[in-house]
Specification:
Chain lengths: 453, 277
């Protein structure tokens, strides 16, 4: 590094090095491992239980609980971007001159020294070969430059000069990707929405943070369906949704996993499902010793008079997982009995065990006769205005990689030297900015072709 | 003929090909390498047949999906991709001796699929999230990427077995020159890198069409990105810093360890969305 640089020059130099690129990439690769080993987005209790109190403090300081959004990880990405931009600016002017040269110059001495140089003799005059090879080169490679020397003729042709731009395409695609990700993070959202069949909503909840966001229109779930394989694994689930705008139904569409609905920049994905809370239940109330049965439909929250003035029964709610002495008995209704004497207690009616309440040995036994089973559909609602930047980045990256890896800037050289008789000595070689082995094979191919002529 | 017969016979044919290649290396007999190549091609055809039959069988069972849906199928396909890439390389570069470093990889992957008790070869139905044409594009490109890295790994090993100046009678004398190994390793990395890039991208596009998120830092995604970083480092060291030979071969080996962790480690050690490689 030069002495007496100004500070901006020093900073520029710092970002201009490929060493920095390598170090940053090494740091990104190694630190990324952390987030795959240590739980992400857990609660404080999770971390203290898993790793202990001391380590929890460390986790908090370095945001390891959400490390891919931690300041230091983002800093590494920013350094990478500055590095790419600074390097590209620094080198592009040189590359530009190579890509668009004022005039093409060739140095025969450099080509004569190349390792892939092949020499052979042909029983023809150099004049006839000269025009023959010129047409060959201009057909297979490109425009030919021909020069006469003391001993004969040299000619060159080249192609693929433009492929040197490939690296810049790759690097700019990375910048484009990061810009797209940034736009998505700032102006987009990822939210979830649970809709019972028949329910409508225009508000979803941001993933993890549970903050409500307005979708801009209402979504109604008309119907939900799930199909199973004979193995019992779900085969497909489907929601029938209606979009409602300004109080008017706009259209109705089915969505499935992998077949989302996209409307006005909002994407609606099928992501999960479950059993919705029923509104009401039909209960058999069985008078205990003499088995008199009364059947009643009760709404959740409703309170009814028990037969023969034995007290009151209030249906308090529905639990998807009823816990009975540490066992999950599954879905259950819960209610509260208030007896004549003012004594009040809660009972549970698990759906899977209809006779459960008999074991209580009360005056009445309650049995769930039927209820309307409804599903809810779990939707993922997202908005990502950065997606087109990201996708353009994807396409540019693939094109850039293809050009950089599989194409190259190649120049070919043929020298024809007159021998004494009707016989010429031919030398062929070539240079490429990448894939020297491939170039060697290409030269050998040309040699066999020209020898056969 | 059914798929499991085809695939288990392919395992044995690949084993035979490896034996021929290793024999050609230790006994310095070019003929054995030629035989190895022919056997390898037969194994590859058998492997292809097995994959096609399995595809058909899945339709007959009413599940109807491409055979890329579990660990067993992915390993079988991995062998297939390494085999086709190797066959291409041998035809192009005419260096049959490097088959010693490639054919065992092909054999080991498919043998692990057939013989490991943890890996079920049952054809099972697809969960809804996997039912997408992107699955096919994603799996094929990822595995082409892995196969490039596997061969790069195989060729990198040559640096460590080949002495600096092997004398003409040693078994190492026939190994290709450092220059050619370097070029071959680089070509394989480049091939792998292009397809890993496309693999990650198709995965992202698919995730976006299935869940509305193109990237969620799922362990498998993260590990594929780590792998991508390692090979990007490889590329910059080679092109900008002029690294060659053993130093660079180490980077390729580290890269392949990352590939293996992305493929197996994530499934067995960590948890995430991906049910298999
Ligand atoms: C991940 C972030 C990346 C960073 C920070 C980065 C950075 C750099 C820098 C600073 C240079 C040297 C300056 C220049 O030639 O412009 C460079 C060169 C290069 N990069 Fe990258 N790069 C990245 C990704 C990639 C990828 C994904 C590829 C392709 C697979 C790639 C391929 C190259 C090549 C081939 C060169 C050599 C240029 C030449 O030969 O003239 N880079 N990179």
């Amino acid at each position: 590094m030069k002495k007496n640089q100004t500070i901006p020059e020093k900073i520029w130099q710092f970002f201009c090095s490929v060493k920095l690129t390598v170090y940053t990439l090494v740091l990104l690769a190694t630190t990324s491992i952390i987030g795959t080993v240590i739980l992400q987005n857990g609660t404080q209790q999770d971390y203290v239980r898993l790793y202990g109190e001391a380590f929890y403090n460390l986790i908090k300081v370095f945001n390891i609980d959400d490390m891919y959004h931690a300041w230091w990880f983002l800093l590494l990405i920013v350094i990478l971007c500055i590095n790419i931009v600074v390097c590209s600016i620094e080198r592009l002017s040189v590359t530009w001159k190579i890509i668009f040269p004022k005039q093409l110059k060739f140095n025969p001495e450099r080509f004569r020294k190349l390792k892939n140089l092949e020499t052979f003799t042909v029983d023809k005059t150099s004049e006839s070969l000269s025009s023959e090879y010129e047409t060959f080169l201009s057909k297979t490679v490109g425009a030919v430059i021909k020069e006469e020397t003391e001993s004969g003729t040299v000619m060159y042709a080249e192609k693929g000069r433009w492929t040197r731009i490939g690296v810049y395409v790759i690097h700019s695609s990375i910048i484009l990707l990061i810009i797209g990700a940034l736009i998505g993070a700032v102006f987009g959202f990822k939210a979830t929405l649970q809709l019972d069949e028949g329910e409508t909503s225009d508000v979803a909840f941001i993933y993890k943070k549970r903050i409500p966001v307005n979708i801009g229109f209402s979504i109604k779930c008309n119907d939900f369906d799930v199909k199973f394989y004979d193995t019992g694994a779900p085969e497909e689930f489907r929601s029938n949704l209606t979009i409602i705008e300004n109080g008017k139904e706009s259209f109705t569409k089915d969505i499935r996993v992998n077949h989302p609905l996209r409307y006005k920049g909002i994407n609606i994905f099928q992501s999960s499902y479950g059993t919705a809370r029923p509104d009401s239940v039909v209960l058999d109330i069985i008078m205990q010793p003499d088995k008199d049965v009364t059947t009643k439909t009760i709404k959740i929250g409703q309170e009814i008079q028990l037969p023969e003035n034995q007290g009151l029964f209030k249906l308090e709610g529905f639990l998807p997982h009823f816990d009975f002495r540490g066992n999950d008995l599954g879905e259950a209704f819960v209610g509260r009995i208030t007896q004549k004497d003012g004594n009040s207690f809660q009972i549970a009616l698990p759906i899977k065990f209809p006779t459960f309440d008999k074991m209580r040995k009360g005056t009445f036994a309650f049995v769930v006769k039927e209820f309307e089973r409804k599903h809810y559909t779990g939707l993922q609602i997202t908005k990502d205005p950065g997606i087109w930047y990201v996708y353009s980045g994807f396409i540019l990256m693939i094109i850039g990689c293809w050009v950089t890896f599989f194409m190259s800037h190649q120049s070919y050289f043929i020298e024809i030297k007159k021998n004494k008789t009707n016989n010429s000595e031919i030398s062929i070689s070539g240079r490429a900015n990448r894939n020297s082995q491939g170039m060697k094979l290409k030269i050998q191919k040309i040699v066999t072709k020209l020898k056969d002529k | 003929m059914n798929s499991s017969l085809a695939l288990s016979s392919a395992t044995f044919i690949y084993a035979l090909a490896s034996v021929f290649y290793i024999g050609s290396f230790t006994f310095k007999k070019q003929v054995l390498a030629k035989a190895g190549f022919i056997v390898l091609v037969i194994g590859f055809l058998d492997n292809t047949l097995g994959i096609i039959l399995r595809w058909i069988e899945s339709y007959q069972m009413g599940y109807g999906h491409a055979p890329f849906a579990n660990m067993y199928e992915s390993l079988v396909f991995f062998s297939w991709t390494v085999a086709i890439l190797y066959i291409f390389v041998e035809l192009k570069y005419k260096e049959s001796i490097i088959g010693v470093f490639a054919s065992p990889l092909i054999f080991l992957a498919i043998a692990y699929a057939s013989l490991s008790p943890d890996i079920s070869s049952k054809i099972s139905p697809l969960i809804p999230a996997l039912k997408s044409n992107w699955l096919i594009a994603h799996v094929i490109t990822c595995f082409l990427g892995y196969s490039g890295f596997a061969l790069a790994f195989g060729f990198s090993i040559i640096y460590f077995v080949k002495p600096k100046d092997p004398d003409a009678t040693s078994i190492f004398a026939k190994l290709p020159s450092e220059e050619l190994i370097d070029e071959l390793t680089y070509q394989m990395v480049v091939f792998g890198f292009l397809f890993l890039t496309i693999g990650i991208i198709t995965g992202a596009v698919w995730a976006n069409s299935a869940w509305g998120k193109y990237w969620s830092w799922d362990p498998k995604e993260t590990w594929s990105l780590i792998t991508w970083f390692v090979y990007a480092i490889f590329m910059h060291l080679r092109m900008m810093k002029g690294w060659h030979g053993r130093n660079l071969a180490w980077v390729s080996i580290i890269g392949f360890i990352a590939v293996m962790f992305t493929y197996f480690g994530v499934n067995y050690v960590l948890s995430g969305l991906h049910s298999y490689g």
